[in-house]
From TrEMBL:
<protein>
    <submittedName>
        <fullName>Sec-dependent nitrous-oxide reductase</fullName>
        <ecNumber>1.7.2.4</ecNumber>
    </submittedName>
</protein>
<dbReference type="GO" id="GO:0030313">
    <property type="term" value="C:cell envelope"/>
</dbReference>
<keyword id="KW-0560">Oxidoreductase</keyword>
<dbReference type="GO" id="GO:0046872">
    <property type="term" value="F:metal ion binding"/>
</dbReference>
<dbReference type="InterPro" id="IPR008972">
    <property type="entry name" value="Cupredoxin"/>
</dbReference>
<keyword id="KW-0479">Metal-binding</keyword>
<dbReference type="InterPro" id="IPR011045">
    <property type="entry name" value="N2O_reductase_N"/>
</dbReference>
<dbReference type="InterPro" id="IPR026468">
    <property type="entry name" value="Nitrous_oxide_Rdtase_Sec-dep"/>
</dbReference>
<dbReference type="Pfam" id="PF18764">
    <property type="entry name" value="nos_propeller"/>
</dbReference>
<dbReference type="InterPro" id="IPR041114">
    <property type="entry name" value="Nos_propeller"/>
</dbReference>
<dbReference type="InterPro" id="IPR015943">
    <property type="entry name" value="WD40/YVTN_repeat-like_dom_sf"/>
</dbReference>
<keyword id="KW-0186">Copper</keyword>
<dbReference type="InterPro" id="IPR051403">
    <property type="entry name" value="NosZ/Cyto_c_oxidase_sub2"/>
</dbReference>
<dbReference type="InterPro" id="IPR006311">
    <property type="entry name" value="TAT_signal"/>
</dbReference>
<dbReference type="InterPro" id="IPR034205">
    <property type="entry name" value="N2OR_C"/>
</dbReference>
<dbReference type="GO" id="GO:0050304">
    <property type="term" value="F:nitrous-oxide reductase activity"/>
</dbReference>
Length: 675
């Protein structure tokens, strides 16, 4: 039996510390000391000495009690998981970010509208087909302006199965399967060019909502700008979603034509308002650009009226019209014309304070909150009063014949909050939270009955840094908000981080909205990969992601075993059929089999690659230099690449993921013989 002897002590400076003493000293550090040392407000670069107490660390780093509290509330120890996950857009970064809360750790970047090499997205395999689904009239569009992620819902609550994200610039919607966090589909709206009023889902994800931002003639065809009133139109789109297939079904989708008002944000009703949807609009002035022709700037021309229009849509009734054939087909898409929508009780307008942004349905579905950027109030509409106004029938119409319900008959309350209200979220205590862009603040205010007895009052305002756009509360736009945390997505960071050149990161600030406590900024998180607009925060426990694919040979695009998968070592092979060379390959630590491929210039190459690993995190990459091919193959995954070997030469291929001690030896040669 080996002797249990004390090893020689470590030498640290002039002090001798035994291994046992070192472990004891480390164990003696309190959790508070470790957490305090993680505070984001690092005012002094000084490493705490071994054995320092929490008080010494706090003093050395000049931390305030608020700093220490924030650190305690946000620290997640190594190996532990965050309680919430936040999905946020990246604006013209074109992707989706996943952060953990409360740590604000960036956990994943989901590739969506832009090629992303680490995930092998857009560099061969089925992901190329996904991107091609978003091409515009055959023209590659390889970037996007993501704005509003929408988690799939069941009974008005997030179910953690799918995520949808829109592309404002190019009028597209993407579908992400949260079993493997990969984009499965991109659809291009054939009726519009730009959009902003998406993505938002109905309470059981029957439809994904989308609306244009800047009106164009339907289908984006040419028409002179001077014919704006006559030929330009808005469009409210209801994309049908098939949950079993995990795909949007264009042939079962439809749209509603509107006047050429610019649509902004949307929300779907729930509870008593289920079956209805709501969109804000701006530019009801019908202004058109033309500075060189002497017209006023659009920022002036589009803000002349005191009121714009809230669009109120009965989508259940619209479904009946589609079933009855009361639609036209434009660019292969079903469209209910606005005269039909008005006559059949599908589309109504309600005046709303000018230049609105957010339209947010309360958790119970009984109120609709509208924030007008140029009005210091939020305006709260009662769904019950809207229905009464519709039944009464005492309305006027706009110049296009759309019913305009009386403002005063539909409004429940107006609450003055501050300058530049944009977007509202809710907690589980009957409070609402609205971003104030010009004030650079979050306003907390109380909802009225049945939520609270002391309703429709401003409670508190919290400064944020700086120029907040959207905000997201934990499950704060669902039927059952979770409360506790809110994230402010601030457009400017200014002085929050070290200077790294003129282009500064966005600033996402985690805020505590714990019950019976004042709001408190807990953490600043720099976003240096784009501009997050909207976000949604879900309880982590709702996500049921796979750790490895269910079976070896899994095709992530079809979510089934690929018929060309190679299931075990020894089944790999190469076949030549005329000018076509087909390869069935396997990847395992640390081999790519077969590892020598020789073809002739001009051959069509079909290469099936299967990662046969079953261990969690045993991902392999596949890179073929010179041919712009780069794949990421997670455990069990199969992908197929197709290309023409048009460049003669010698091309090594290799695994891009450091998967084993002999990772560098995981390679082969692709030889293209000149003809």
């Amino acid at each position: 039996m080996a002797e249990n002897r004390e090893r020689p002590p470590f030498q640290i400076g002039q002090q001798k510390v035994s291994r046992r003493g070192l472990l004891g000293a480390a164990a003696g550090l309190s959790a508070g000391a470790l957490l305090a040392s993680c505070s984001v407000l690092q005012r002094k670069e000084e490493t705490p000495k071994l054995g320092a107490t929490a008080e010494e660390i706090i003093k050395q780093r000049q931390l305030t009690p608020e700093d220490v509290t924030a650190a305690l509330m946000t620290y997640v120890p190594s190996g532990k998981y965050d309680e919430f996950l936040m999905f946020s857009s990246t604006g013209h970064g074109g992707q989706v970010l996943v952060h953990g809360l409360p740590s604000m750790r960036l956990l994943k970047v989901i590739a969506v509208f832009s090629p992303e090499p680490w995930q092998g997205y857009g560099y061969g395999g089925y992901t190329n087909e996904v991107l091609e689904g978003g091409y515009f009239k055959g023209k590659p569009i390889l970037w996007g302006d993501t704005h509003h992620p929408a988690l799939s819902e069941t009974n008005g609550e997030y179910d953690g199965e799918f995520l949808f994200i829109n592309d404002k610039a190019n009028g597209r919607i993407a579908v992400i399967d949260l079993r493997d966090f990969e984009t499965k589909q991109i659809v291009k709206n054939p009726l519009l060019v730009n959009e902003h009023g998406g993505c938002f889902v109905t309470p059981n994800t029957e439809y994904v909502l989308e609306a244009d931002q800047y009106s164009v003639p339907l289908g984006g065809v040419y028409a002179p700008i001077t014919e704006y009133k006559e030929k330009y139109r808005g469009v409210l789109t209801f994309w049908k979603f098939d949950r079993q297939k995990g795909r949007i079904v264009p042939e079962e989708s439809f749209a509603i034509e509107t006047p050429p008002y610019w649509h902004d944000l949307a929300d779907a009703g729930k509870g008593p308002s289920h079956g209805w949807a709501f969109w804000n609009s701006i530019n009801t002035e019908l202004a058109i650009p033309g500075l060189q022709e002497g017209r006023p700037a659009m920022e002036i021309a589009t803000t002349q009226r005191d009121m714009d229009y809230l669009h109120v849509v009965n989508w259940k009734k619209a479904e009946e019209l589609i079933a009855a054939g009361k639609y036209e087909t434009i660019n292969g898409f079903k469209v209910i014309r606005m005269d039909v929508a008005a006559k059949e009780g599908v589309l109504f307008l309600i005046p709303e304070p000018k230049s609105p942004h957010g339209v947010d349905v309360t958790p119970g579905g009984d109120y609709i909150v509208v924030a007008g950027k140029l009005d210091p109030h939020v305006t709260v509409y009662s769904f019950a009063k809207i229905q009464q106004a519709i039944q009464a029938g005492n309305w006027d119409t706009d110049e296009y014949g759309i019913p305009v319900l009386p403002f005063e008959q539909c409004v429940e309350a107006q609450v003055e909050l501050g300058l530049g209200p944009l977007h509202t979220q809710f907690d589980d205590q009957g409070y609402a939270y609205t971003s104030l862009f010009l004030d650079s603040a979050v306003a907390k205010w109380s909802l009225g009955k049945p939520y609270r007895e002391d309703g429709w009052k401003l409670v508190e305002k919290l400064p944020v840094q700086y120029n907040i756009g959207h905000l997201a509360a934990a499950e704060g736009d669902t039927a059952k908000p979770a409360g506790r945390f809110l994230v402010a997505h601030n457009k400017w960071s200014v002085d929050r981080y070290a200077s790294l050149g003129p282009l500064l990161p966005q600033n996402a600030q985690l805020i505590s909205i714990a019950p019976n406590q004042p709001m408190r900024v807990l953490y600043d998180s720099p976003i240096g990969i784009g501009e997050p607009h909207y976000a949604q925060i879900i309880k982590r426990e709702r996500i049921k992601a796979w750790e490895i694919y269910p079976e070896v040979g899994w095709n992530p695009h079809t979510q089934s075993v690929d018929p060309n998968a190679v299931l075990k070592v020894g089944d790999e092979r190469i076949e030549r059929r005329g000018k076509t060379v087909e390869i069935w390959a396997v990847l395992l630590r640390s081999q790519i089999r077969p590892d020598l491929i020789e073809v002739e210039q001009g051959d069509e190459v079909i290469w099936h690659l299967t990662n046969i690993e079953r261990a969690k995190d045993a991902t392999h990459g596949f890179a073929l230099g010179g041919y712009n091919i780069n794949l990421s193959l997670e455990p069990g995954e199969t992908q197929t690449i197709r290309f023409v070997a048009d460049i003669p030469g010698t091309f090594p291929f290799y695994c891009t993921e450091f998967c084993s001690a002999l990772h560098l030896e995981m390679m082969g040669y692709f030889l293209v013989k000149p003809t």
